[in-house]
Specification:
There is one protein chain. It is built from 14 helices and eight strands. An eight-stranded mixed sheet has the order 3-4-2-5-1-6-7-8, with helices on both faces. Strand 6, helix 10 and strand 7 form a beta-alpha-beta unit. With 306 residues, it is of the alpha/beta class. Helix 8 (146-167) runs parallel beside helix 9 (181-189). It has one domain (2-305): Rossmann fold. This is Cellulose biosynthesis protein BcsQ.
């Protein structure tokens, strides 16, 4: 399942931090793989949130660095493959078709099976394993020119999403709203869009007025520093949007500190089973609600495809 995390609001609104905590919670709830991608360079990328700064460089140097060059490595390899990568993407369009290939014996499909395996391997090679056998992060890599990166990613994003979907059950994409070339494709290809908004009437009205095409396949994470649950029924009524798909994610001081320190995995591990009396419980409850909403959409999608 391809899940785009995005916002109609520009600037630092919490899209990346919401993706981070939801993906970790997903790993706690399900014994399946999730891959994290970004389609843009930013000052505080997922890498800074997932790895403690003082440990990040030693960890990388201790590993085979050539394996961990992220999206840049994947795009370079796909470009070298040329038509081979495109052919695999055109012939095999979903997981079910990929699985059926293993039953076919003629030489054409043997070749296509090899392409599937190679592209799937690319995702694993370029990833950091955040949680054992469950959560993987593909950094952007060493590319520093945003324009070149954006242009190249736009040419390869379909193949990358396809390969990631073969490798993992979930692909979470931190999707820019700054007119990046690949963002439009990601939003169109995504099975689900997780939209981060703040409880501001103008922000909410702008989203519902201008992005109606996303409403059938989105859930909304409402982020605010005060209690917001009471405002959800009013939003649901006004815009005819099911309230179960509007999820409050309250501001949490400790999680905010963990973001700055690169210790969100530790924070989530320590607090995920906290009791109702814990000051972190409302935040964790919101994150778990988001996970269940994503799982519900996945179950609904699989029901349609059955």
């Amino acid at each position: 399942m391809k899940v785009a995390f995005w916002s109609s609001v520009r600037g630092s609104i919490g899209v990346t931090s919401n993706l981070a905590c939801v993906s970790i919670a997903m790993a706690f709830e399900q014994s399946c793989k999730t891959v994290l991608l970004e389609n843009h360079c930013q000052k505080n990328p997922l890498e800074n949130m997932l790895f403690q700064r003082r440990e990040k460089r030693p960890d990388r140097n201790a590993l085979n660095v050539s394996r961990y060059t992220g999206l840049e490595h994947i795009m370079n390899q796909l470009s070298k493959g040329g038509a081979r990568g495109s052919r695999g993407c055109n012939v095999i369009q979903d997981k079910k078709a990929y699985e059926e290939i293993w039953m076919l014996k003629d030489s054409h499909y043997k070749d296509t099976k090899l392409i599937c395996m190679e592209n799937e391997k690319l995702i694993k090679e370029a990833s950091f394993e955040i949680l054992l056998n469950s959560l993987y992060y593909v950094p952007i890599g060493n590319q520093v020119n945003q324009f070149i990166f954006d242009y190249t990613l736009n040419d390869n994003i379909i193949k990358i999403l396809w390969a990631s979907e073969i490798f993992a059950s979930y692909t979470f994409i931190d999707t820019s709203n700054e007119n990046n070339l690949s963002s439009k494709i990601i939003l169109a290809e995504a099975d689900l869009v997780v939209v981060t908004l703040v409880q501001d009437q103008e922000v909410i009205e702008h989203f519902f007025d201008n992005y109606s095409s996303l409403l059938s396949k989105c859930i909304i994470l409402l982020y605010e520093s005060k209690s917001i649950a009471s405002g959800i029924p009013a939003i649901s009524r006004k815009y005819s949007f099911h309230k179960s798909k509007i999820i409050p994610i309250p501001y949490n001081i400790e999680y905010s500190q963990a973001i700055r320190q690169g210790t969100i995995v530790e924070f989530m591990t320590r607090n995920y089973r906290c009791e109702r009396g814990s000051p972190n419980y409302p935040f964790i409850a919101g994150v778990r609600h988001a996970v269940f909403a994503i799982q519900s959409e996945q179950n609904r999608k699989e029901g349609w495809n059955a």
